[in-house]
Amino acid sequence: MSVTTTCSDVQELIDNERKEIRFTTYSTEKSRFDRYLTFEELNDALKDYAKSYDHVTFTSIGRSYEGRDLIGVHLATNYEDDKVVRGLVEKYEWRIHPVVNPDGYVYSHTATKATDDPCKETYCGDSAFSEPETRAIRDAVMDIKDRTEFYFSVHSFGLLWLFPNAHSLPPVQNNDVLANISLKATEAIKKVRHTQFDFGSTSTVL
């Protein structure tokens, strides 16, 4: 098997990125999110949006194990020039919580994430909703369950668009509907971002 070295010093890349972040000032809203913000920066950014736009409300649905707020914003109306965006925002109330694991997010910015115990990556807790973060999400969703049309959980890596089931192989009753929505969504992403996402039920794709 032949191999090729693409990076001989990952630490150097990390150090250079940190220097760039430290000395770079961001003058536009678009460029503000071209990197992973620290939790404090993200918190400040969401508060800035709430102060700058009447239709944006800053909120917290609870606290993490270490006491950090599970921050987010609610969008109730909008005045976007884009007709598609405006239509979506006027039709639905959007509740966006960019980080629901703030303790892990902060840890990933301040400590080495690697571990020699692979089981830690998939630790499921003592029971369903055993952790304060998942309880907060559950309670927030249940408060509006009669008005909820859809729910997305977005992760930063994988290029996958997944839907139920995850715990068993038999397809859910509306599997065809979910597959059709996923097809249209991934095609739209490819058209705009030129990125190809695979899609399907979690139990069959993973």
TrEMBL record:
One of its GO terms (cellular component) is extracellular space. Its cofactor is Zn(2+). It comes from the Eukaryota. SUPFAM superfamilies: Zn-dependent exopeptidases. One of its GO terms (biological process) is proteolysis. SMART domains: Zn_pept. Belongs to the peptidase M14 family. It comes from Amblyomma americanum (Lone star tick). Residues 1-206 form the Peptidase M14 domain. One of its GO terms (molecular function) is zinc ion binding. This is Peptidase M14 domain-containing protein.
